[in-house]
Amino acid sequence: MNAITEWDISILEKIESLRCEPLTVFFRIVTYLGNHGIIWILLSLVLIINKKTRQIGLFAAAALLLQFICGELILKFIIQRERPFYYRPDFDTIINHPTSYSFPSGHSGSSAAFSLAIFFQNKKLGAPLLLLAASICFSRIYFMVHYPTDVMAGITLGIASAVVTFFLLNHIFKKKNWMPKAGQE
Asked: Which of 16-20, 84-88, 119-123 is most confident?
């Protein structure tokens, strides 16, 4: 076993020892919110429908899409890392076993991409979403369906997706005169 996997396993063992019913209930709710990015997709649509928040919703949806392509369609296919419960069948995941590969964490990537894309546009709206995103990210480790490095990679990919989207769309929108200049809303 390599050093990274040993470190991952040691963290998972510590987290498993901290489990309790109230945390399990809380993290079960937040992990299901992150399933298939549905919460983020629905929030994107709500924001896009409203003219006042349309730009925020477009940025968030674009960050989600970029993260999905890079993480779910490219990196998981290339890396093909098995989930922790394959390596350690004694880990009790409590929730259903996901069937896709583990690296990077899609829940973490989509949560980071969406919440940070919102935060870049509107800090007041984005701050609580960052807290929800952090909870979703941690829930994946709590339930032993991801290694900590899978979650860190997902967060990193989500951050990169939000940053690239922010700069790229700002450049495109300004060039095409599709967005109001600061103070002209």
From this structure: 119-123
Structural domain includes residue 32: yes
- Whether residue 46 lies inside any domain: the answer is yes
Domain count across the chain: 1
Domain region containing 141? 18-175
Alpha helix (H) ranges present in the chain?
3-17, 21-33, 38-49, 54-67, 76-79, 84-87, 106-121, 123-142, 148-175
What pLDDT score does 93 carry? 75
35: left (phi over 0), alpha (psi -120 to 50) or beta: beta
**Please, are residues 139 and 94 in contact by the beta-carbon 8 Å criterion?**
no
Q: Is residue 66 part of a domain?
A: yes
- Residue 179: predicted pLDDT: 58
Mean pLDDT of the chain: 88
Return the number of other C-beta atoms located less than 10 Å from residue 183's C-beta.
Answer: 5
| Four-residue CA torsion sign, 53, 57, 60, 66 | negative
On the question of pLDDT at 17 being above 90, the answer is no
